């Protein structure tokens, strides 16, 4: 017999805690973990009784062992904005879509992106010292991420078509604002002005995408055209998803955390070691994603009554895993709040699968390998070419976690060129 979930879901509408959660998801979970003395508890989110999962064990059971019971929500906001895509599909259709799409992000397709990625890094990252002023790193990395996704997925390259890149990037931002304004305007999402502007932006983006799919045969667009997909609109819907502002923001989130975490004199030794030893850089990047996962987590719906982490979860309950809290589960991560790359060659060696920044199990992120190639390229470039420090040295680095994690006040950083003979590359 499984136990009753600690906490309560309150009454419909009045008992809803969505706003409290959106305002500060980390404190929301911390308070309840302490109150219930449990890393799994019940509350009400999006007006649905929802189990919150904040332990490594619970996350693994939810996303891996019981992925057939706890399924994606087809009525998720993502469907409103992006149409029917893999993200909100279940069962056999999801399996087939994953099989098709994954081929674009692995093997030869992944290898063929490397030259483009290093070209974009080279071009964008030389700019970091050009103005002579401290850089807002989050904006700089978001620009880099945007160039990456639009060049890779849509054949729109900054050096060839700067205006088109700018136009698409602005449309993606408008589209994105609709997505994030929707939960705030929970009561009347379809009437909010942000939402209708977002839908207009989506239509314009879809016109551009369809035109590309009709006329271009090279690159990612060409590969996508030749994939077996369930219907004629699937390629366009997925391109809309892949070029969404969400991805550059997530990349910028991780790169900002990396840069801030390794800044100044305190970060100098870690920067030096990470440059000397690529395995150590891997550990640094694991620790960056552990402490500052770009997305707060993901949601599922219980397809039937089921035990989860020792508790009874009734059919139709929501379940949400909170990556920030899972990554600080003290049962697995000792000194959970400390930045300790060494843990990944010591006590936590081989436990990368206990992280969930990219989800886990059969519905984990299909872009994780590509993201890793990109992150390593950027970080290696930075380490080889620059030393950097926060400028001004004292800044408020308090994080916000939604919609994508980053310091609330965007940090500014000064980069100085390393003497190449001292940089460890010789
Ligand atoms: C820093 C970058 C990224 C992060 C942090 C990230 C994170 C995630 C997470 C947490 C999930 C699982 C969501 C869940 O459990 O509900 C996911 C799924 C997914 N990601 Fe990513 N992602 C990133 C980059 C990318 C890229 C570059 C692509 C491809 C263009 C991509 C495509 C997808 C897709 C299609 C899914 C859905 C898979 C499925 O439902 O089966 N992601 N991602």
From TrEMBL:
Residues that span the membrane, as ranges: none
Any single biological process term in GO: sterol metabolic process
InterPro entries hit by this protein: Cyt_P450 (IPR001128), Cyt_P450_B (IPR002397), Cyt_P450_CS (IPR017972), Cyt_P450_sf (IPR036396)
Gene Ontology MF term list: heme binding; iron ion binding; monooxygenase activity; oxidoreductase activity, acting on paired donors, with incorporation or reduction of molecular oxygen
The keyword Oxidoreductase is assigned to this record: yes
Keyword set, alphabetical order: Heme, Iron, Metal-binding, Monooxygenase, Oxidoreductase
Oxidoreductase in keyword set: yes
PANTHER family documented for this protein: CYTOCHROME P450 26, CYTOCHROME P450 26B1
Family to which this protein belongs: Belongs to the cytochrome P450 family.
Protein name in UniProt: Uncharacterized protein LOC114444108 isoform X1
Upper lineage: Eukaryota, Metazoa, Chordata, Craniata, Vertebrata
Gene that produces this protein: LOC114444108
């Amino acid at each position: 017999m499984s136990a009753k979930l600690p906490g309560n879901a309150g009454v419909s509408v009045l008992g809803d805690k969505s706003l409290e959660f959106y305002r500060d998801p980390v404190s929301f979970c911390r308070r309840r973990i302490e109150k219930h003395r449990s890393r799994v508890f019940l509350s009400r989110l999006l007006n649905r009784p929802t189990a919150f999962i904040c332990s490594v064990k619970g996350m693994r059971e939810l996303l891996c062992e019981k992925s057939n019971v706890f399924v994606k929500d087809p009525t998720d906001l993502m469907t409103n904005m992006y149409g029917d895509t893999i993200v909100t599909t279940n069962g056999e259709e999801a399996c087939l879509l994953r099989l098709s799409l994954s081929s674009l992000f692995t093997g030869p397709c992944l290898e063929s992106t490397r030259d483009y990625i290093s070209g974009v890094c080279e071009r964008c990252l030389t700019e970091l010292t050009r103005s002579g002023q401290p850089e807002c790193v989050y904006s700089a990395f978001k620009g880099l991420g945007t160039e990456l996704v639009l060049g890779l997925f849509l054949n729109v390259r900054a050096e060839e078509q700067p205006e088109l890149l700018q136009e698409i990037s602005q449309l993606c931002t408008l589209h994105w604002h609709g997505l994030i304004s929707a939960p705030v305007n929970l009561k009347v999402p379809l009437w909010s002005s942000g939402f209708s502007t977002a839908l207009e932006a989506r239509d314009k983006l879809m016109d551009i995408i369809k035109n590309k799919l009709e006329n271009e045969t090279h690159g990612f667009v060409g590969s996508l055209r030749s994939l077996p997909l369930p219907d004629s609109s699937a390629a366009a819907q997925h391109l809309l998803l892949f070029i969404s502002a969400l991805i550059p923001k997530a990349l910028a989130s991780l790169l900002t955390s990396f840069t801030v975490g390794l800044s100044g004199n305190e970060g100098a030794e870690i920067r030096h070691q990470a440059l000397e030893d690529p395995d150590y850089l891997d550990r640094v990047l694991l620790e960056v994603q552990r402490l500052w996962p770009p997305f707060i987590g993901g949601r599922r719906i219980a397809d039937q009554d089921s035990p989860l982490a020792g508790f009874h979860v009734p059919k139709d309950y929501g379940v949400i895993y909170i990556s920030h809290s899972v990554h600080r589960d003290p049962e697995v991560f000792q000194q959970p709040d400390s930045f300790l790359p060494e843990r990944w060659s010591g006590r936590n060696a081989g436990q990368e699968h206990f992280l969930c920044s990219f989800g886990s199990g059969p519905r984990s992120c299909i872009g994780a390998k590509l993201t890793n190639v990109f992150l390593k390229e950027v970080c290696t470039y930075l380490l080889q070419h620059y030393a950097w420090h926060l400028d001004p040295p004292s800044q408020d680095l308090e994080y916000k976690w939604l919609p994508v994690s980053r310091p609330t006040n965007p940090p500014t950083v000064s980069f100085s060129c390393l003497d190449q003979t001292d940089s460890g590359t010789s």
